[in-house]
Every structure is written in structure tokens, then in C-alpha cells.
Amino acid sequence: MDLHKKYHLRRVINACGKMTHLGGAIVLPEIAAAAAESMHHFFELDELQDAAGRIISEASGAESGCVTACTAAGITLSVAASMTGNDLAKVYQLPDTEGMVSRVLIQKGHCVNYGQPVTQAIRLAGARPVEVGVVNRCSETELRHELERGLVAAIVHVESHHTVRFGWVPLPRVTALAHEYGVPVIVDGAAQDLRLRELIGDGADIVISSAHKFLCSTTGGVVAGRKDLIDAVYLQNRGIGRPMKAGKEAIIGAMAALEYRAQQDMTAWTAQQDRKVQRILDDLSSVQGLTLGIDPDPNGCPFSRAKLTPDHDTTGHTAQSLSDALAEGDPTVVARSHHADEGYIYLDAIEMTDDDIDIACQRVQEILRAT
Fold first, then answer.
1. Is residue 325 over pLDDT 80?
2. Each residue of 60-71: pLDDT tens digit?
3. Whole-angstrom Cα distance, residue 182 to residue 195?
4. What per-residue confidence (pLDDT) applies to 371?
5. Closest Cα partner for 208 from 264, 157, 262, 258?
6. Architecture per CATH, 42-263
């Protein structure tokens, strides 16, 4: 079935990466088959979540795990869990936090917007986010000061390219400080499932990743961490978590994705991404006024992206106007333009086929040679 034709939708060449606004990832056949099979059956969802918890534990090195509707839901529910523990009366009370410890610390340079402000995800649980430091500097002294003031339910730490990339306290030091005061650390690792075991190893009490990014699954949030906290996260389904619950297809999809990852040849996967990036560079090497480069993933995941920096005097285009021109027409080519105001864009090849690369590069050539 041609869904684009049936519903009059433009085709998308995804040169942006694992982005929620583009539908996450192409679900791998093995994972899609498992999720589709789940549609034909009933399950005791508590049993299904227990099974998911065992698989998440094996994949991450954490004590336990569960699946939520998405990472954003996982952040809110993890914050809620840090305030209520496994006290059902407190779960029912939220988002009213009267009488609860409800201050949640976050470094100011981590107060990002990933489609919604992360501070709003904290507030949705009824907690009060406390921004520590300034946008380009947060010190251990400032974190310790807020911890010593008390009434801290958790620290939320964001691992993302969206954060300020300097002047902040790294995760291992955050967890060490927090644990001195008995405070849990919740990590927003939405696109960091490739680093899940590393982040748990850094001492995080909860790490939330998206099932629908590099795991290439159906939409869902993979929550890994301390068993008591995971139990409290799941208990929120009887309170504010009810509209954030994961369905059977999300849970089965996440389980199948983690099992697939366990046997995946990541060295071969990285080589495949490198090959596609080099193909982009080769295809665009003859374009005058276009500087090309390769940048590794800023969070340390094992892949790189093709960097395109157009010279306006030669090409007549800025990075932003190139991105805008690529987005026109059908198919639309959606570039990774987070840094367009700095003069460059990326073509992220992870979700691109060789045919997609050919079309995208042809469009770049047509746009930059038209002036």
C-alpha cells in the first residue's frame, strides 16, 4: 500500500537522523514482525512489563526496567517516582506535591527543548525544577550548595547534542555528588541507547532512551535503573502515568529491538554508516563553494555525519537557505540544520538508502549550481 499516495503526503528523504518529528526510525523487519504479531494476542501487561524488565536489565546492566510511551513520558514518570517512591497514596496525590520532597535540580545548560522544554516534563509531575548555574557554566560547588539546601527529589541530567557542550559537570561527577546526599540521578538519554550500558555504569539511577531511534523499534521509552525506582515508575500507571502508558506493541517492539541489538554486529554497522557518509562526500566533491567534512557524533555514538558548509559569495546560499531549498518539493529532503546559524548543515546518512543519497546529493548540486 502506498500510504503517501493514499493520504496525499509528501515523501521524505530523511537526512536529519533519528528525529521524532519525522517519525523516529524505519522499524527493522524483525522488530516490525514481533510488534505485528503482538496485535493478534492478549497479554497480562504486568507480566509483559516484567519480561521487558528482564531484557532491559540484560541489555543495560541495570537492576530492572520498564517501557513507557516515550522518553518524554519516562522523564515525567521518573521524576514522579523520585517523589512518591512506592507509596500508592502519594501516586494518587500527584501532581499535588504538598508534603513531598519536590525540588529537582538540573544544570541550566541542560534546560533544552527537544519538542517540549525538559523543565516542563519535570513540572508535569508536580515537581519544581531548580536551574543550577548559568547557561555556559555550572560548577560542582553550585550543585553541592543546592543539595545541601535539602528537599531535593532528584537531579535530571541530559545527554544530548542540544545541551551546552562546555562548562558543565559531567555525569560521573553528578552521580557521585548526588549519592553523597542520597539523591537519585535521572538521565534523559533519548538518543543514547547505544550508550545505555555506559550511562548506567556512570552511576545513573534511571536512564531513559527512545525505542524508536537507534533501536529502530515502534514508539516507546526504555527505562532502565534501580529496581525500587523502576517499580515506582511503573506504579505511576495507576496515577498520572495512565495517559502515558505503553501498549503491547510498544513493549514487544522494545523487547525485540533490544534482543536484536544484543546480536548485532556494531562494527559492521559503523562501517556501513562510514561508507554512506563517504558516498555523500564523493558525490558532492565537485561542487564549487561547498566545503565538506566529517564530524563524529558529539555524544560519542559510533557513527559520523557529512558536514556541508556553503560559501554564500560563490553559491548564493547560506546554510539555512540551502536547508530550506532542500526541504521544498516532493520528495522533501530534510537536512540536519541545528547548526545552520553557524554556517553549516549535516546530511545524516543513517536513515538514508543509497538511492536517497543520490537524490539528496543531486538536489544539493542543482541548488548550489543554479546561481
1. yes
2. 999 999 999 999
3. 25
4. 62
5. 157
6. 3-Layer(aba) Sandwich (3.40)
3-state secondary structure of 7: coil
Whole-number pLDDT of residue 165: 79
**Contact (CB, 8 A) for 152 and 104:** yes
> If you count them, how many residues does the chain have?
371
Do residues 106 and 131 lie in contact, with contact meaning Cβ atoms separated by under 8 Å? yes
Q: Say which residues have a Cβ less than 8 Å from residue 238's Cβ, sequence separation at least 6.
A: 88, 91, 92
Name the DSSP letter for residue 96: -
Contacts of 103 (CB under 8 A, 6+ apart): 127, 128, 130, 146, 149, 151, 152, 153
Quick one: fold of 3-16+266-368?
Answer: Aspartate Aminotransferase, domain 1 (3.90.1150)
Q: Determine the pLDDT at residue 147.
A: 98
Mean pLDDT of 41-45: 97
Q: Are 188 and 200 in contact (CB under 8 A)?
A: no
Q: How large is the average pLDDT for residues 232-256?
A: 97
